[in-house]
Design a protein that fits this description.
Blueprint lengths: L8 E4 L19 E4 L10 H9 L6 H18 L2 H48 L12
Antiparallel strand pairs: 1-2
Helix pairs in contact: 1-2, 2-3
Amino acid sequence: MNPSGYPGEVVPLQGRYDGFSGQPGGPAVVQYTTLNISSEPPKDHIIWSLCCFVYANPLCLGLAALIFSIKARDRKVAGDLEGARHYASTARCLNIWATVLFSIAILIVMIVIIVVAVQVQTVYRSINRPSNPYNFNYRG
């Protein structure tokens, strides 16, 4: 249950259990609980926020994500890990939304370009086609 490199801490629980209630002098059972507290600092997603701000900034979500990432980094430097996790989580959500909206916009633009190209090609072929597809003036 413990990750490698992190030894578990043994902490005895308070109180005693002396067997069945009302029977004094029974065997005492001591229970131990292992706690693993992760002190890994939260990620602030600053690089992802910068990319969303510079390249994909729909509805200013990239700017908002960048602001929350900077706040998360400031909280992490100040030692407030819970506040840093909160701001980092908000920055991550904003980055996800900005990336998804930008990807959908790129997909829509590509579809529109393909549809317009097909329509232009169809119109060009209809203009350059002779009105009579059978050439009866052929003298051979």
